[in-house]
Amino acid sequence: MHDGMDIGCARFVSQTALRVLGRDDARDVCAGDISEVVATIAFIDLRDFTRLSEELSPEGTVRLLNDWYGTIEPLIAAHNGFVDKYIGDAALAVFVGPVDRAVQCCIAIVKAVEELNRGRLAEGLSPLRAGIGMNTGIVALAAVGSSSRTDITVIGDTVNVAARLEALTKVYGVDIMFSEHTYARLKDLAGFELRFLDRIVARGKKIPLSVYEAYGGDQETRRDAKKRMRPDFDQAIAWYHYGRVEEARSLFIRCAAALPNDGASLEYLRRCSEFERTGVLERAVEMNVYPVWSQEFSVGHKTIDLHHQKLFEAVAVLMRMIDAEDFSRIGSVVEFLAKYIVVHFNTEEELMKSCAYPFYDDHKSQHDRFAVVFADLVRELQAGGHGGVYVAFRVRILIVDWLLNHTTKADPHLGHFLSRAAC
Question: Which of 284, 207, 296 lies closest to 240 in space, CA to CA?
Answer without folding.
Answer: 284
